[in-house]
Design a protein that fits this description.
about 375 residues; alpha/beta; VC0802-like; Rossmann fold; 2 domains; nine-stranded mixed beta sheet; six-stranded mixed beta sheet; binds adenosine-5'-triphosphate; binds magnesium ion
Length: about 375
């Protein structure tokens, strides 16, 4: 009797020729995630078995599995020889400390096994009842279901619990995107949502040293590190934005500060994306959340780039976004009270519906190309 972990993936996407592509990518991602742990990976059709690991690593392994996009669920299980005696002993061991209602469910892939599914379930159910007076049978809605899966090749999997994971698509199966990451709640969630759909991420952060502190920068690195656990690594571009902000502040109408900043951020994000093979820009915008996220403001920032801008949170309420950030573990970092570059030079009354001709006129006062070039030249890259 050997302890294993059954890992299941989302089969729904795996049709025809794509199947082995997705499977290989997922296997690669599992291996990368478990790289410092001793185990063996056994590929069973439509699922994987993690075997030969130390008991003390079980928690670490399952925590990692829960962060791998494309995994549907896992079950801690036992792997026994396919004979009635071994199956029975294993089931009795699993259920010995349980009470309440139970049932036994058998799946028989190996048709040479001497009993059929119903017969084996009945046989094992009877043994369990006889061994443990605290248990009764309920085949409709039991507290415990013992699942017996008789595989081809003489081995059987036995388990009771299934833990749901992220689902989604394996990282790397859906292109590459440049996440615009601030220190806030929303952008890490936006990155996570696209990572979950299989997009590889790079990230860009704009900071305004000395107006924003070293701690604010560290907070963003921290957030990017957390998002990277789902996306399998991130190159984080740190762009010094101070000069651009000072120029805008000095030369453009105050109420357009944020509008103008956004346009610069988008342009720089796009240049960095194109240089690193990125196919999209990702933001944490949510319609109407603040002045810079009205459809007019979005139109203004969108119009300076040609790459698609993905906004996975656009129709989500703040509370829904917070719920996801708590689930993925970024919330506590996001609410730390460090300043963001957007809070520097914040106008009292930002333009809510900026007009394009006004924006263009203000922008004509700036040497846009030179400002972008200078910012790009000073950009630092951190590999996370
Ligand atoms: P967040 O919680 O992600 O900070 P927010 O609600 O504070 O979002 P804004 O400040 O308007 O909203 O930012 C909208 C989006 O613009 C962010 O989700 C992020 O994608 C991008 N963004 C904002 N500030 C920065 C920054 N300093 N560096 C990189 N991207 C940024
Ligand atoms: Mg913000």
């Amino acid at each position: 009797m050997k302890k294993v972990i059954i890992v299941r993936y989302c089969e729904i996407h795996l049709k025809g020729k794509n199947r082995s592509y997705f499977q290989n990518l997922l296997i690669k991602n599992i291996k990368r995630s478990l790289k410092n742990i001793k185990y063996n990976l056994n590929i069973l059709n439509a699922r994987y078995l993690i075997e030969d690991f130390d008991d003390s690593d079980y928690k670490t392994i399952t925590q990692k599995l829960e962060k791998i996009c494309g995994i549907h669920s896992y079950s801690p299980a036992f792997w026994v020889k396919s004979n009635i005696e071994d199956i029975k002993n294993c089931c009795l061991e699993i259920i010995k400390n349980k009470s309440g209602e139970f049932k036994v469910e058998t799946n028989r892939a190996d048709k040479t096994f001497p009993l059929n599914s119903m017969e084996l379930s009945r046989e094992i159910g009877g043994e369990i009842l006889a061994s443990n007076p605290k248990l009764t049978v309920n085949v409709i809605n039991p507290e415990t279901t013992i699942k017996i899966d008789i595989r081809e090749g003489g081995q059987t999997l036995i388990f009771t619990d299934t833990v749901k994971c992220l689902s989604g698509m394996p990282s790397g199966s859906a292109g590459r995107g440049m996440l615009m990451i601030s220190g806030g709640i929303d952008s890490p969630v936006a990155g996570f949502m696209l990572a979950k759909r299989g997009m590889k991420l790079d990230a860009v952060h704009f900071f305004s040293y000395p107006y924003t502190s070293e701690l604010a920068k560290e907070k963003v690195i921290n957030l990017a590190t957390q998002v990277a656990e789902y996306s399998g690594g991130i190159n984080l571009y740190m762009v010094k934005f101070t000069k651009i902000q000072e120029e805008i502040h000095e030369k453009c109408p105050e109420e357009l500060m944020i509008t103008m900043m956004r346009r610069f951020m988008m342009r720089i994000a796009e240049r960095l994306a194109k240089k690193s093979g990125g196919q999209a820009i990702i933001t944490g915008e949510s319609l109407g959340q603040v002045a810079s996220q009205t459809i007019e403001s979005i139109t203004s920032s969108n119009s300076v780039v040609t790459l698609p801008v993905l906004r996975p949170l656009i129709a989500m309420d703040k509370l829904e976004i917070i719920e996801v950030s708590q689930k993925i573990g970024t919330y506590e970092t996001s609410i730390l009270p460090y300043e963001d570059c957007c809070t520097v030079f914040l106008p009292k009354y930002p333009a809510i519906k900026p007009k394009m001709e006004v924006i263009l006129k203000a922008e004509s006062k700036l040497d846009v190309e030179k400002l972008i070039e200078d910012a790009l030249n000073e950009t630092e890259i951190l590999s996370i």
